[in-house]
Records
---
Amino acid sequence: MIQGNDFVADGLRVSLGRRVLVQPISFALPRGCLAAVVGPSGAGKTTLLRALAGLVPSEGRVLLGGQDVARMPVRQRARQLAYVPQGEAVHWPLPVRDVIALGRYPHGGADPRRLQAGDYDAVSRALDDVDLAPLQHRPVTELSGGERRRVAIARALATAAPVLLADEPIASLDPYFQLSVMALLQRQARAGALVIVVTHDIGLAARFADQVLMLLDGRLAAMGPPNAVLAPPKLAEVFAIDAYRADHEAQPVLVPWAMRSA
Ligand SMILES: Nc1ncnc2c1ncn2[C@@H]1O[C@H](COP(=O)(O)OP(=O)(O)OP(=O)(O)O)[C@@H](O)[C@H]1O
């Protein structure tokens, strides 16, 4: 049943010329949920996430709390939907803290050096959340790829939006920070946000996600709890792999194990 605070994709479709990148997709996700979008390369995950964020022209509707996101004023939309792009590069040597402060822009905090107390606190919290406080005055161009990834995540967190859309947020992170960021995103969800994460890591998706959306060739091949979606027949059909499945500390363990021959 669709609730008033749900995030709803209603017949969302993306095409470029005559090429359909995302077939009409419909789903509803509640706030308080961590959802993982998985699927092979080219399945349409980034395109779907960008369409949900209103960053690519699409047909159909995206509703948040019953409101059509496309009809929201831009600032309101930016306060409601925070977005972490894939492989984002910042080319200017801005201090880490100033880049994260850009997340407050939709709230009116235009100048990172003259933030209101609430904006300043949100930036400090986001810095702590991703363990970057010690690097806050370093130019972002002098950080490693994984550190920059955490800056991008912190910038989105600083917005404190009810919906957080993150495209491969853990892709360039070491194992410690992969776990740390997934746990952080799970905490954001438990605190009432809806978090939608695109990831190639089906193991961490199985462990942390409440819902999994599995894409194949631009369509929603499956959606549901990880145990149901990341099951052997679906993994074989969609990823052409066999996986090792077990439990550890009452949590699922899922490891891609062998390619299946065609
Ligand atoms: N600007 C574009 N012009 C033409 N085709 C595009 C464009 N952007 C994406 N595509 C195509 O759309 C399809 C979906 O791309 P998308 O980036 O959404 O896939 P993905 O599932 O996120 O892949 P990956 O896991 O490799 O990041 C791919 O076949 C891609 O080649």
Note: The radius of gyration is 18 Å.
---
Amino acid sequence: MGVEVVVDGLSKSFGAQTIWRDVSLTLPTGEISVLLGPSGTGKSVFLKSLVGLLKPEQGKVEINGTDIVTCSESDLYEVRKLFGVLFQDGALFGSMNLFDNIAFPLREHTRKTESQVRDVVNEKMEMVGLIGAEDKLPGEISGGMRKRAGLARALVLDPEILLFDEPDSGLDPVRTAVQNQLIVDLNAQTDATFLIVTHDINTARTVPDNIGMLYRRNLVMFGPREVLLTSEEQAVVQFLNGRPDGPIGMTEEKDTALVEAELAKNGRAEVPPMMEQLPVSPGLPERSAVRRRKDRVLSQLRTLTPTAQEEILKSLSSEELALYGYKRPATGGWPEGAPPQPPQPQPPQGPPQAQPPRPQPSQGQPSQGAPQPSNQPAAPRQGNSSPQQRPTPYPRGQQQEEPAWPGGLQPEEDSSGEPKRRWFGRKRGEQ
Ligand SMILES: Nc1ncnc2c1ncn2[C@@H]1O[C@H](COP(=O)(O)OP(=O)(O)OP(=O)(O)O)[C@@H](O)[C@H]1O
């Protein structure tokens, strides 16, 4: 199973050029997350900072209790073994055939015999659909095949965290769709934590569990896919619609008056409709992350935007709604704009038969906030992933208007009487 990556208050500059500042987010264990952002906003720099290839000036990247920003070289070497990285062009050695390219990390970093190496390489080549191409040189195959070979190589050491830097760059729409399916299927098979940097809107809308966006040197938001995909934030809507008019320009910093003039002329872009997340291919196991994510997101539902809450509830089956203490409207389906109903009082009951078994808490982590089948809100998680210790999905320093809580639900309050609005990542200074 993958591991959680906690990024807290991370800032990176090159000389006088600030790339991004105060970035905080948590990549939840085994889930697929996507990082969007206009060109040049520092997405690749962020990936390199996660693996310790670049050193941010401030903040932490905590993995299995090690802060890779400040740890020793030997600790960093150990943590790096958890990572697999798919670089944009596959980063293959041009003079080696695909088999040797994929076998390279095994021969360098393990004591496996050649017969064991062969077994692992064959297994990974099969996973990415490259059986039969072992003897080809990188220059003899298509860009899509090179990416898949790079992916097989990223997988040979069974990474717990897999980073993808623009896996769809240079691919046609059909191959992008095939590759997206491959990513979802690999996540089901490995249960590793995935982070994908992409410009492909279709990928962003259909693949991840969580989405974030870098813009103007900040992380605009990061959280469950439903938050960003229903966001009315102008930069997000412009990006998702791929429109030239809006706050994102060629130089990023676009003149406000020009933006207003463009919007007055062309009208505001609409929030595109939600698309369903890609299911796993038939015959493969379900993604374990789906169940964990439901527990996590439902336990913190009321900290999300109303539109995100509604989309999340709409995606649940009747049994799941009952399990989490919600009820489908009597009319069936979710009429446009109708608020989800508040939790109804129910006698305690076990999970319905259809539910897969709950994941066991992993080492050092208490239960992942199993939902309570009653009128009580689901218990917040404790430990590293506790929502009390998580910042909001909205950018820091910006005061957000309190969302209208659907169905008359009130925001959860902590003992201080303050509504809880936090999501991923610990707030700096908090334990
Ligand atoms: N090693 C480096 N030294 C100095 N500047 C760098 C270095 N690496 C990246 N940069 C600068 O950091 C900025 C962000 O680059 P990065 O490649 O991370 O952007 P990106 O969001 O991934 O862009 P794209 O979507 O076009 O790939 C750019 O201005 C780039 O020139």
Note: DSSP finds 13 helices and ten strands in the chain.
